[in-house]
Amino acid sequence: MSLDGRIVLGMGLHTLSPSRAGDFKSCPQLFKFRAVDRLPEPTTTYQARGTTAHRALQRLFDLPREHRTPEALYDLFRAAWAEVRTTEDYEGLFSSLEEERAWGLESLAILANYFHVEDPSSFDPLERELDLREDLDGMTIRGILDRMEELPDGSLVISDYKTGKAPPEQYALPAFFALKTYALLIRRRTGRTPDRVRLIYLGGPNGPVVYEIPVNDAQLDAMDRQLRALWATIERAMARDEFPPRPGPLCDWCSFRDICPAWAVPDGLGGSPLAEPILDETGAAAD
Ligand code: SF4
After folding, report:
1. Whose CA is nearest to atom 2 of ligand 1?
2. Please, are residues 202 and 109 in contact by the beta-carbon 8 Å criterion?
3. How far apart are CA 57 and CA 74, in angstroms?
4. Are 161 and 54 in contact (CB under 8 A)?
5. Residue whose CA is closest, atom 5 of ligand 1?
6. Judgement on whether residues 105 and 167 belong to the same structural domain of the protein
7. What's the CA gap between 186 and 75, in Å, rounded?
8. Is residue 284 part of a domain?
């Protein structure tokens, strides 16, 4: 890895986050654009909401239990946005104050949903915004866990906030990839296996949705094997500079579609993808 954090081809993989691992599983070319080439991407109002809401929700638990009210959360959101809006990534995101105000009101309505999901005055998390970086026999896996708590029955739960809308339940399983990775890292760090992982979706027209699944040692062992296989596949891709694009529905939201080889068709032939990747047993692009 270079001094600025860029992964340099030929130097091997040093650190992998669940987000970048997910990129590679979805589309190796997307992984290359983001992790290897480190191309800039425009920030969106959805990212601004996610960043700001996470800060506010994290700080809510700094308050005494009796002060963890909706009004306090709204104030924390406003204060967090005052910080975030002046940062380089988010400066000038809105074209007018009216647009920014409408975004703010919509954000507060989404945050109001949080109180339909749980009562933050009823517990104190064990961890918040925990920066996890664990070495798994030569692989460094890194991620930031939103929250972890121990319930009265003694079970250990990892929770992740999402300000967007929940996918239909039958498509939610891939969204647990990051949380199961965090559970593996927690087991590695503490020797304790989390009991459950939860996705808390606050947005969407139907209000908040919580998806929760149990985890156990066998699942985390399988996640460990999956990460090792994925790591090896990425290292091979990097050594050969082979990152086949995997066109699909994701392309509609991809920042790099204009420069993606899958969509680079000769003038006059229209924009249909040219490449179909070959997948290996991990679900990643094969070499
Ligand atoms: S446009 Fe589609 S195929 Fe190309 S990098 Fe983005 S997600 Fe992958």
Report:
1. 251
2. no
3. 10
4. yes
5. 30
6. no
7. 32
8. no
Across the strands, what pairs with 285? 279
Atom of ligand 1 nearest to the CA of 245: 3
Residues 170, 87 share a domain: no
The more confident residue out of 203 and 270 is 203
DSSP 36: I
Is 12 a residue whose pLDDT tops 90? no
Q: If you measure from the C-alpha of residue 287 to the centroid of ligand 1, how many angstroms do you get, rounded to a whole number?
A: 18
Domain count across the chain: 2
Give a yes or no: residue 171 inside a domain: yes
Best residue among 26, 34, 37, 257 to mutate for probing ligand 1, ranked by most atoms within 8 Å of CB? 257
Q: What are phi and psi of 166, to 5 degrees?
A: -75, 145
Q: Which helix (DSSP H) or strand (DSSP E) does residue 217 occupy? A: helix 217-240
Among residues 225, 247, 270, the one where a domain terminates is 225
With a Cβ cut-off of 6 Å, ligand 1 is lined by 27, 29-30, 33, 245-247, 250-251, 254, 256-257, 260, 262-263
Strand locations in 15-138, DSSP E?
Answer: 15-16, 127-136
243: in domain: no
CATH code at 206? 3.90.320.10
The chain-wide mean pLDDT, for the chain, equals 88
Q: Is residue 133 domain-shared with residue 200, that is, in the same domain?
A: yes
The predicted-structure confidence for 177-199, as pLDDT tens digits, reads as follows 999 999 999 999 999 999 999 99
User: Looking at the predicted structure, is the pLDDT value of residue 93 above 90?
Assistant: yes
Domain that includes residue 59, residue range: 45-122
pLDDT in tens, 130-143: 999 998 888 899 99
Which amino acid would we find at residue 14?
H
Among 183, 205, 225, residue at a domain's last position: 225
Assess if residue 32 is contained within a domain: no
| Ligand 1: centre distance to CA 34 (Å) | 11
Rounded to the nearest angstrom, the distance between the alpha carbon of 37 and the centre of ligand 1 is 14
Judgement on whether residues 51 and 103 belong to the same structural domain of the protein: yes
